[in-house]
Design goal:
Length: about 180
């Protein structure tokens, strides 16, 4: 797993997919999750083992919402998301020395209408720090969400359904899938 993300690690553990964390040697420039997923995976030498790279962005109204720099930026992002549907788009790269699979997954997330008090309360949790779109759906941020259409785990970490399909096709039976 070419990632620093504790959520990605937790999901792989939940799915009982064996892995070793290797911090990728890749600098993210721009907003393309496919490019970043591939860059992360390609920066790690997995030897004979497959390498997984994932990157996720939040898009609302055509605007990419990255990780906020401070509480004011997080507040603006949450105000933008309030009462609207946005997309969580993940790029996933699964590769070995012999082949590479590069795919994306999109999940639509609708926030309930939020009051200024809702936003201030959430900002007070500090859960928004380091989170694309300024929220963590697997935590207190779940209370901001009205609806999820698609792979819920794609919003938390790696797009699990896509990953399982790829593992089942490429490694039938080895990881318990296929």
């Amino acid at each position: 797993l070419a990632s620093r993300s504790p959520q990605r690690r937790a999901i792989l553990e939940q799915l009982r997919i064996p892995f070793v964390v290797v911090v990728p040697d890749y600098e993210e420039l721009g907003d393309d999750p496919l490019e970043h997923a591939a860059g992360k995976a390609r920066s790690v030498d997995g030897g004979e083992q497959p390498v997984l790279g994932v990157d996720t962005v939040v898009i609302c109204g055509g605007t990419v919402l990255g990780k906020p720099g401070d509480a004011a930026e997080a507040e603006q992002m949450l105000e933008t998301l309030a009462g609207k549907t946005h997309e969580v788009v993940s790029g996933l790269c699964l590769r070995t020395q012999a082949w590479e699979e590069l795919h994306s997954e999109t999940t639509a997330v609708t926030f309930r209408p939020l009051t200024a008090r809702d936003i201030a309360s959430y900002l007070g949790t500090d859960e928004w720090r380091g989170r694309a779109g300024s929220y963590a759906i697997q935590g207190i941020g779940a209370g901001l969400v009205q609806r999820v259409d698609g792979d819920y785990l794609n919003v938390v970490g790696p797009p699990a359904a896509l990953l399982i399909r790829l593992l089942a096709a490429r490694f039938s039976g080895i990881y318990g899938f296929g």
